[in-house]
Amino acid sequence: MSNDIDRLAHTKWDCKYHIVWAPKYRQKVFYKEKRKEVGKILRELCRYKEGVEIIEGEVCVDHVHILVSIPPKYSVGGFMGYLKGKSALKVYDRRPELRYKNRNRGFWCRGYYVDSSGKDPRKIELYIRKQLVEDARLPYNEE
C-alpha cells in the first residue's frame, strides 16, 4: 500500500473508504468456496471501474468488509449501487440455489456502512484482517 496521492487530469486525490454490507436478512451464506467466489467477484467488478482499488477486503460468514480507494469522479453511493447490483447478478449466475433461497428478491441488504479512512488506513486494514478470527469465536452453524 502506498501513501502516494493519486491523480486524474486536473485532480489530486486520496479517498479511501471502509465499507461494510451484508446479505439480505443477514443470512450466513458465505462458507468455504462461496467466500472465495464472492471475493473474486468483488475484485473483478472493482477492476472494471477505472481508478478503483481494493486495498483490503474480507468476506465473513454474514457480511463483507472492504477498504477501497474510490476516485472522486464516482460517488460512494453510486459505486455501491454498481457493486451490490452487479455482484448479486454474478452470485445468482454462479449459485442459482441462492436465488431461490431469497425467493428471487435482492441478494444484499438495502443499506451499507461507510466511513472514510482518514490519513492512516493501516488501523482499518488490521481490523479487516482480524474479522475472520473474531467471527470464528461466534457460534455459527456451518452448512
Largest sheet: 4 strands, antiparallel
Structural class: alpha+beta
Stretches where pLDDT is under 50 for at least 5 consecutive residues are none
Oligomer, anyone?
single chain
Estimated helix fraction: 25-40%
Strand content: 15-25%
Give a count of the beta strands, DSSP E runs of length 2 or more: 6
What is the molecular shape? globular
End-to-end Cα distance, whole Å, is: 35 Å
Element order: H for helix, E for strand: EEEHEEHHEHH
Mean pLDDT: 85
Rg over C-alpha atoms, rounded to the nearest angstrom? 16 Å
Figure out the total of helices: 5
Biggest sheet, strands in spatial order? 4-5-3-6
Structure in words:
The protein is α+β, with helices and mostly antiparallel strands and 143 residues long. It is 39% helix and 19% strand. The chain contains 5 helices and 6 strands. The protein has helices at residues 32-48, 76-94, 96-101, 122-129, 131-136; strands spanning 6-7, 12-13, 16-21, 53-59, 64-69, 113-116. The strands form 2 sheets. A 4-stranded antiparallel β-sheet has the order 4-5-3-6. A hairpin with a 4-residue loop joins strand 1 (6-7) and strand 2 (12-13). Helix 1 (32-48) packs across helix 2 (76-94).
